[in-house]
Amino acid sequence: MYAVIRAGGKQYRVAPGDVIRVEKLGGDQQQVEFGDVLAVSANQGELGKPQGAARVVGQVVSQVLGDKVLVFHYKRKKQYKKLNGHRQQYTAVRITEIAFDGQSFKAPEQPVVAKRPKAAEAASEETAAPKKAFAKKQASAASKAHRAKAGSKSKGGAKKK
């Protein structure tokens, strides 16, 4: 089961449970409804324009920035160079439901994944920090001893005034 929708001037093929990146949607909304449904596939091999009211509902996952695109303008022999960068803003949307002709296809509930607590991360870094500091201190002491030994020998004779 999938549908073809239009959002932000582009067309997307979506199925329940898919996550798509569309042009940034305004507002602080949690649910998004795409009313511009171009085609719906009910059974395998059947694709058609929905006669009735078809709708695709999604849940906003996050607002993200895309990769940086560098725009470089150059005119040879004229000493003209211009460099601009651009990062497009996107909204990540998880498709939760596709409904048409009285049928509704819903995405399975997404399991909640427990995040690793930050306190545990800090504890693991604290145990690693003394080892790093000790190694750094030993390297520093060794380099000082080497410099002191090399500095006692005079290179190039007496100093000139």
Features:
161 residues; three-stranded antiparallel β-sheet; five-stranded antiparallel β-sheet; 2 domains
Provide a brief overview of the structure.
This protein has 161 residues and is of the alpha+beta class. Helix content is 22%, strand content 44%.
Please explain how this structure is put together.
The protein is of the alpha+beta class and 161 residues long. The protein folds into two domains: 105 residues, no CATH class; 35 residues. It has one helix and eight strands. The strands form two sheets. Strands 3, 4, 6, 7 and 8 form a five-stranded antiparallel β-sheet that branches. Strands 2-1-5 form a three-stranded antiparallel β-sheet, with no helix packed on it. It is elongated.
Classify the beta-strand content into a percent band: 35-45%
Number of H/I helices: 1
Low-confidence stretches: none
- Rg estimate, integer Å: 31 Å
Going by helix content, strand content and strand pairing, the class is alpha+beta
Number of domains: 2
Count the E strands. 8
Shape: elongated
Q: What is the distance, rounded to the nearest whole angstrom, between the alpha carbons of the first and last residues?
A: 90 Å
Instruction: Specify the helix fraction band.
Output: 10-25%
Mean pLDDT figure: 80
Secondary-structure element string: EEEEEEEEH
For the largest beta-sheet, the strand count, sense and barrel status come to: 5 strands, antiparallel
